[in-house]
Amino acid sequence: MVKCDQEISPIHPQTNSTEPDNPRTWSAASVVQIPANKERHGTVLKCLALHESYAARSVAVEARLDVKYAPTVRLMGAPQIDLEEGKDSLILRCVADANPPASIVWRRAGRSEIASLQESLQLRPVGRRDAGLYTCQAQNSVGTSDTMSVQLDVKYAPKILSAGPDRLTTAPLFSPAAFECVAEGNPTPTYKWVQRISTQGKPFLDRGRESRLVIDNVTYDYQGEYECRATNFINGQERTVTSDPIALQVVGAPQVLRTTSGAGGLSGHSVSVRKGDSATLSLIVCADPRPRHVAWEWGSLRLEAGSGIGRYRVDDVTQDSREDCYLATLHIDDADLQDQRPYYLVVENERGTDRHAISLRVEGMFSVVEPLELSYLLGIAGGCLAAFLILICLCIYAVRARKCCFRSKYIPATQRH
Q1: Molecular function terms in GO for this entry (predicted)?
Q2: Given this chain, do its domains 69-152 and 253-363 carry the same CATH topology?
Q3: Contact 163, 193 (CB under 8 A)
Q4: Helix/strand/coil for 396
């Protein structure tokens, strides 16, 4: 007797006996014992009888083992990268090993209904509602398999649910204001608040990195349109969504912005020009309501917008690129050293006033000396100082020499003849 061409030993020696009704006929019996496990399922056993009377001197009889066993399962197709909603599909297979064949049951945690009775669970395409814990189990007449599970996490790009509180918010000058942005997404999105601007060489200004933007002290710099941006990353790729713009309207007394622009070499809140050149001093003022009085003051003089006197001229205020902001400009022709001073812009509307200065510096001949000329002058000064020191030394020498000569000419009375 052999199994897979390997001989199997019987549990007892072979027995030979005659047939009860025919003593001349002998019957031989051999018994083997084989463990019934699933690894032997389908194995072919062959019993080989040897005798001289057989035509081939042997006769073989075969039998195939049919081992019944409970199912075991394994999962195939579990995702190795992020699944993105609306883009990716998923096929999960619950492969069972059983005899007799087992039935498959797919279930989803938290739900009573069966997800699938097939070997394969197909999601084409996946959606956020498909996320969850899935289990599969196999059963046949022998028993039931262990449960295998897989957790599905479906990613999706951000979506802004609300941004506000309103499309337009009005805030008094120097009061607090707040905006709230609510977005959904997986992974959880991060937030950024930006303000649309038309200056400083860039179209947006970052204002916050939280879902809630709080402005503790509103000034006219904060007036304008704001956007909330929600961002996450799926498989290394950025997904960003932007809200509709939200406007912040600032009302209150005038405010002269502390960032200025002027002609003639600006440095902070000062303007530098050469003597004899024209100077232009400009400041931006914001106000809502619009300013009703705009004037420049220095010394005992005051010039209203649109007026002039002598070498001084004040333009009418013009609209700046920012809403409710205006440009106020003072021109000074043929600037002289006596024009060096602070010039104050005074602005008034029905809610209050503001006053801010910009300084003018007039550079004379020696204040604009080139580096080479300056070194030349320093050399001359050093030479003059050296000559002065030499002269002092010569004077000291001359005085001492004269004293020596006077002593040599004096003869004491005891030495005279």
Answers
A1: cell adhesion molecule binding
A2: yes
A3: no
A4: helix
> What is the distance between the alpha carbons of residues 177 and 180, in angstroms, rounded to a whole number?
11
- DSSP E strand stretches across 308-382: 308-309, 312-314, 318-319, 325-332, 341-349, 352-363
Cα angle: 120, vertex 126, 132; to 5 degrees = 80
Question: CA–CA separation, 333 vs 344, rounded Å?
Answer: 18
Instruction: Classify residue 101 as exposed, middle or buried by CB count within 10 Å of its CB (0-12, 13-18, 19+).
Output: exposed
Q: Which CATH number is associated with domain 69-152?
A: 2.60.40.10
Judging by beta carbons within 10 Å of its beta carbon (0-12, 13-18, 19+), is residue 144 exposed, middle or buried? middle
Residue-wise pLDDT for 41-53, tens only, equals 988 989 888 888 8
Identify the CATH homologous superfamily for domain 157-244.
Immunoglobulins (2.60.40.10)
Q: What is the pLDDT of residues 277-295, one digit of tens each?
A: 999 999 999 999 999 999 9
Length of the chain: 417
